[in-house]
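pls ignore typos typing on phone
magnesium ion + seq
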Amino acid sequence: MPNVIARLDDVSLSYGDRVILRNCSLDIVEGAITCIIGLSGAGKSTILRLLDGLRKPDAGHVYVRDHDVCHMPESALNEVRRRISLSFQFAALLDSLTVGANVSLPLREHTQLSDAEIRKIVLDALESVGLGHTFDSMPSELSGGMLKRAGFARAIVTRPELVLYDEPTTGLDPIVTHLITDTIVRLRQKLNGTAVVISHDLQSIYMMADYVAMLFEGAIIAYGTVDEIKRSINPIVQQFIQGSEVGPIPI
Ligand SMILES: Nc1ncnc2c1ncn2[C@@H]1O[C@H](COP(=O)(O)OP(=O)(O)OP(=O)(O)O)[C@@H](O)[C@H]1O
Ligand SMILES: [Mg+2]
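k done
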């Protein structure tokens, strides 16, 4: 049996009278890349916020390792967060700092490394996303896609055990999409790190996912390897991955 590093256990969550998650359960396997797919507004980003302890469910539990992150004092939660890294959908850099200084921030906050050591690790992280030359640039000098890659570098610079990526490749050209997808895979191989990736890019999901989970109407309706998902007989899954207008999904 594979180790489970994080788990949503029978989670329900509503915003006002809108139910987003309904008795939703999901295991995140350690050392694997789990991709969550689903319609826009289905609640995918909400799942990442639950895993990071940023949101509390109305019912159910969220575990990271053996910690119940919904019922923990903030100080203990921060300790867990140090080992997790959340890369938001729209990762913003601080305008007043250089790209290098932005990517250095988590290391300055969480480690006692020297300036020279930090510079080396940050350059390495920037190079892994093809941005080695931007260390001394200001964020305003970068394109939207470059900013996103810099946000990605900042998310991985501390080599976290569990990285939560919210749409890491949305809006990027195919070459950079490939570069980022490849970086997520390499990180997993090199560090045995675990990743949860939300993406609408099926090609990139098929390239990187060990497991795919489909969220629909508040619950995970399909879970399996890429091959299992592709072969799924669930008409909702098939309609979604084929991008068809015809099928059970209300449009
Ligand atoms: N703080 C909030 N208050 C009220 N409603 C919210 C809040 N955050 C999210 N929602 C709603 O909850 C639903 C799920 O949002 P979420 O961001 O998790 O979806 P998503 O699956 O990530 O969508 P997308 O693919 O468009 O990013 C959406 O309908 C959204 O409008
Ligand atoms: Mg989202």
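The first helix runs from residue 44 to 51. The CA atoms of residues 88 and 192 lie 22 Å apart. more later
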